[in-house]
Amino acid sequence: MCNEHSSRQWNSEVYEDKQDFVAKPGVGVLTLLQPRPGERILDVGCGNGNLTAEIAAAGAIPTGIDLSEEMVRQARQKYPELNFQVEDASHYRTDVRFDAVFSNAALHWIKDASAVANSIWLALRNGGRFVAEFAGSGNVAVLTTAMEQALEAHGYAWAGRSPWYLPTIGEYASLLEQTGFRVTLAQHFDSPTPLKGETGVRDWLNKFADYFFPDVTPADKTSIYRTIEEKVRPHLDRGGRWMIDTRRLRIVAIKPPA
């Protein structure tokens, strides 16, 4: 979804898996969208198309876009009657004007947030709405703080490892206002997420290893994982059930009528 993405920065399995640090159900944000029959709606970061299909079930006419060719392939296979396209949201342009733009659990993967906001602005008709939910400031902070400390203690610099854009509510609302939007709802809330797997936080670390530990030797990784686990256990291990400290932003904004 962004021209900054490389093979290290984009992993469709991580993006799609329910164990991702922002889960994908999207029920609450779909309720905010309130798709209506006949509306044209752009789904940015559509993934496997499940939410795009729910938008269509409401009678709307959705278009799903995603940077991942694999995700779009899956979406087309599951919902061949719907329109899915491989597109970079940072540079997406269309002659069609949409009544609404929707995005769930995707925008934190795109660091050029200004370019995405501009793409969304241009895709909307005057009076159209933008509804989104994604990870916000402080997301998985317990884990990333422990990761940073453990890596640096083993001689690895932290800078440049995180692939995520995690703005505060003020930062993102201000960005949208600078683009021209009128922000009508902005929420920043905790949404603790259970981790799957038999080894708790280690499964999560392995899933994100290509992002955070690509240059770490196997021996150092073993030691770093152990250090991280010890640091976060008092905060995330709840009687044998690991709960990750996810935080989300939920946004509704309007492109004013001409």
CATH topology name of the domain at 12-140 and 163-195 and 245-254: Rossmann fold
Biggest sheet, open or closed, and with what strands and sense?
7 strands, mixed
How helical, in percent, are the residues?
A: 25-40%
Which regions contain 5 or more consecutive residues with pLDDT less than 50? 1-12, 17-24
Mean pLDDT across residues: 90
CATH superfamily descriptor of the domain at 12-140 and 163-195 and 245-254: Vaccinia Virus protein VP39
Secondary structure tally: strands: 10
Distance linking N and C termini: 29 Å
Portion in beta strands: 15-25%
Strand order, sheet with most strands: 3-2-1-4-5-10-6
Helix count equals 10
Which structural traits does this protein have?
258 residues, alpha/beta, Rossmann fold, 7-stranded mixed β-sheet, 3-stranded antiparallel β-sheet, 10 helices
How is this structure best described in words?
By secondary structure, the chain is of the alpha/beta class. It has a domain at 12-140 and 163-195 and 245-254: Vaccinia Virus protein VP39 (Rossmann fold). Helices cover 37% and strands 23% of the residues. It has ten helices and ten strands. The protein has a seven-stranded mixed β-sheet, sandwiched between helices. It has a three-stranded antiparallel β-sheet with strand order 7-9-8. β4 (98-104), α5 (113-123) and β5 (124-135) form a beta-alpha-beta unit. α6 packs antiparallel against α10. The longest helix has 19 residues, at 218-236.
